[in-house]
Amino acid sequence: MRTLISTAFVSLDGVVEGPGGEPGYRNSGWTFKDVEFLPEAYEIKGREQQEAGAMMMGRLSYEAFSPVWPGMAEFADYKVMPKYVVSTTLGDDDLVSDWGETTILRSLDDVAALKETEGGPIIVHGSASLVRDLADADLVDRYHLLVFPLLLGAGKRLFSATDKDAQKLRLVEHEAYANGIQKNVFDVVR
């Protein structure tokens, strides 16, 4: 069974919207505009590319990443990695041709079936709505969180507001950096 990992930049109050400067959000670019850059705080991002066997995202994240990431040296390992987009509306004609093998999954059942296959971990970048749905369906196995020392107020949240039983997490890796960013890696306890 493959491990499904949600990786996110998140504010202390749980907002994940617009970390890289995406348009349409009042605090867009909060990861680099408001917090000093320290390379060591982002070490986990390089490790994720080395360890992942596939990348998954929702339609909106795919539409944001696919025009940019294929040409970025920082994301070269993702270019050759199999990618999965979970969408009920995206069609094969909407996929870019320069980002390697990409498969469209139509449901959470398709994600559950993919997790049953052989291969390395599946890393989910961004994709707030998808991650909430995956977590509510108990499909997320691990969280890689870089928590920024910011309170952003309104914005898309990483975790859903669904009324459900408590889900226990086990802290398996953590570190705090001089710029206030905290790395927290949690395994979901089942």
From TrEMBL:
This is Dihydrofolate reductase family protein. InterPro entries: DHFR-like_dom_sf, RibDG_C, Riboflavin_Biosynth_HTPR. Pfam families: RibD_C. It comes from the Bacteria. Gene3D superfamilies: Dihydrofolate Reductase, subunit A. Residues 2-182 form the Bacterial bifunctional deaminase-reductase C-terminal domain.
